[in-house]
Amino acid sequence: MNDIVVSVPPAASFLSVGLPLKLSFTLGQQKVMHGSTLLGWKDHEWLVCEWPIQLGYDQHIEGGTPCTVSYLHDGKLVGYRSDIRNLIVAPVPLLFVAYPKAVEEMYLRKHLRVSANEPTLLMRVTHANSSGSALPTSDYFGGLLKDLSEGGCSVLLVGTPTWVRPGTTVHMEFELPGLGHITNLTGLVKNADTHQGGDLIGIEFQFNQLEYIEYRGWGGSVRQAIEQWTTQKTIALPPL
Q: Of 63, 139, 180, 224, which is most buried with the most CB atoms under 10 A?
């Protein structure tokens, strides 16, 4: 990972409508982090984003509350210190934060791999089950996601079915905590090793094959969501 670079870029170089954001601030003497989405901005004045759904609509946040805004852009983790300017609840819940005076940028390694511990569902992909009929139970199998990167993952299986072997194509379904639920992500089984009473399966993702994420917010692709989640798990911004 490269050193942090501090700069003051023009808006067009680092902002875009629909950009997934992470907001960090202190609420009730406790530091919290919530996902949001950039909806627009006024140069050198403010950014407006969706109200983080995790907060509900009855939370009160004082104007001037310090916060940190971070997001991914062109393979970099970008962050800046700001403060909350205003919030409105009706007709649409929106949060306004101060426009950055300077941003910090950190280049990331390709395919960051982080530990995970999420239930996942594997479904065998075959020509025979491509019809609209219900799939037999034997074509589904549950496991535990143990690590994740933009390029693939490892899944721990107990009582591994015989069809899970290198070269098998599967569809995957699992949760990215705090970000969304991924379905229909295609993966290719690359290897299998015995591990802690089960089999640790290495899977390489095959994107752009109708994968989908139910976001806790608006916009973004499955690839972007995985990249954002792994980065958030790897990089800890300095405390406010």
A: 180
| Residue range(s) of every CATH 2.40.10.220 domain in the chain | 114-234
Q: What is the DSSP letter of 232?
A: H
Number of residues that this document lists for the chain: 240
Which of 235, 141, 121, 236 lies closest to 184, judged by CA?
121
The one-letter code for the residue type at 5 is: V
In angstroms, rounded to a whole number, what is the distance separating the alpha carbons of residues 116 and 22? 19
User: Nearest 5°: CA angle at 215, between 188 and 220?
Assistant: 70
Give pTM, 2 decimals.
0.52
CB atoms within 10 A of CB 186: 18
How confident is the model over 80-115, as pLDDT tens digits? Answer: 889 999 888 788 889 999 998 888 877 655 566 788
**Which residue has better confidence, 52 or 166?**
166
**Could you give the CA distance from residue 86 to residue 98 in angstroms, rounded to a whole number?**
9
In which residue ranges of the chain is CATH 2.30.110.10 found?
5-107
Which two structure tokens, joined as six digits, stand for 73? 């852009």
* Residues with Cβ within 8 Å of residue 56, at least 6 apart in sequence: none
Q: How far apart are CA 169 and CA 62, in angstroms?
A: 51
Domain 5-107: give its CATH superfamily: Electron Transport, Fmn-binding Protein; Chain A (2.30.110.10)
Report the DSSP pairing between strands 103-107 and 5-7.
antiparallel
210 pLDDT more than 60: yes
Contacts of 209 (CB under 8 A, 6+ apart): 184, 186
**What pLDDT, in 10s, does the model give residues 63-79?**
888 999 988 776 677 88
